[in-house]
C-alpha cells in the first residue's frame, strides 16, 4: 500500500481526534518526504547506534532533521552488545533470538567483540561505562534524537540515565569515529528475509 494512503488514513484519525500524532518506523528518506506531503510526521523510529548507522548512510537521519521529525533510535546499545557484558554466544539464553542474528555468530561475533573492547577503552578514559559512552554518542548526533534503550533492571536504567552526564566534544567524537567508523560492524543486523522489510 502506498505510504500516501496509509498516512492519509492516519490523518483522518488525527482530524477525528482519535490520534494525536503520527509516527513511522524504519522508513526511508523518500518515504518520509512523501508522507510529510500528506500530513506532518512527528517521529521516526529506526535502529541506530554505533554499530547500526544505516540512517546516516541512507540519508534518513538527514531527512528527519530537515523535515523537523523527531528521531527515536531503538537498540541504541546494539542489542546489548555495546554494554560490554556479552562476551560469548553462550551468554544468551537458549531461546534468545540473538543466537540466530548474523552479528552474533562465528567470526562476526569475534570481530564485533573487538570493536566493543575499543569502546570500553574509550569509556574508561571518560570515566563512564561502555553503555554510557554508546548512549552519549547517539545523543550527540542531534538535539532531535531521543534513544529508547530497553532494560529489565533498575541498575541498568540508572546506568543508562548516567549517559546524560557524559559530555562528548569534537575530539571525543573523532576518537570514537576512528575506532568505530560507519559500517565497521561485522554482519547484517537481521537475516536476509528481515532485511528486505527495512527502509521501505
Notable characteristics:
mainly alpha, 200 residues, 42% helix, single chain
For the biggest sheet, the summary is: 3 strands, parallel
Shape, per Cα inertia axes: globular
Strand content: 5-15%
Number of H- or I-type helical stretches: 9
Describe the structure.
This protein has helices spanning 3-15, 29-36, 54-57, 60-67, 106-125, 130-139, 154-161, 170-179, 192-195; strands spanning 23-25, 43-47, 70-74. The protein has 200 residues and is mainly alpha-helical. The longest helix is centred in the middle third of the chain and has 20 residues, at 106-125. The model has no long low-confidence stretch (mean pLDDT 92).
Task: Please outline what is shown here.
This protein has 200 residues and is mainly α.
Strand-helix topology:
Elements lengths: L2 H13 L7 E3 L3 H8 L6 E5 L6 H4 L2 H8 L2 E5 L31 H20 L4 H10 L14 H8 L8 H10 L12 H4 L5
Parallel strand pairs: 1-2, 2-3
Amino acid at each position: 500500500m502506498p505510504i500516501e494512503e496509509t498516512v492519509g488514513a492516519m490523518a483522518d484519525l488525527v482530524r477525528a481526534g482519535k490520534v494525536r500524532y503520527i509516527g513511522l518506523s524504519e522508513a526511508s528518506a523518500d518515504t518520509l518526504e512523501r508522507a510529510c506531503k500528506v500530513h506532518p510526521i512527528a517521529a521516526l523510529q529506526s535502529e541506530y547506534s554505533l554499530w547500526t548507522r544505516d540512517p546516516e548512510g541512507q540519508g534518513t537521519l538527514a531527512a528527519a532533521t530537515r523535515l523537523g521529525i523527531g528521531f527515536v533510535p531503538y537498540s541504541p546499545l546494539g542489542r546489548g552488545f555495546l554494554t560490554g557484558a556479552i562476551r560469548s554466544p553462550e551468554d544468551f539464553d537458549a531461546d534468545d533470538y540473538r543466537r540466530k542474528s548474523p552479528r552474533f555468530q562465528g567470526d562476526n561475533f569475534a570481530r564485533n567483540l573487538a570493536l566493543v573492547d575499543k569502546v570500553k577503552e574509550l569509556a574508561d578514559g571518560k570515566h563512564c561505562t561502555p553503555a554510557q559512552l554508546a548512549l552519549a554518542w547517539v545523543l550527540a548526533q542531534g538535539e532531535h534524537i531521543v534513544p529508547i534503550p530497553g532494560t529489565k533492571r533498575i541498575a541498568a536504567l540508572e546506568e543508562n540515565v548516567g549517559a546524560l552526564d557524559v559530555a562528548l566534544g569534537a575530539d571525543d567524537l573523532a576518537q570514537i569515529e576512528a575506532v568505530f567508523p560507519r559500517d565497521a560492524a561485522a554482519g547484517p543486523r537481521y537475516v536476509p528475509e528481515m532485511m528486505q522489510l527495512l527502509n521501505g
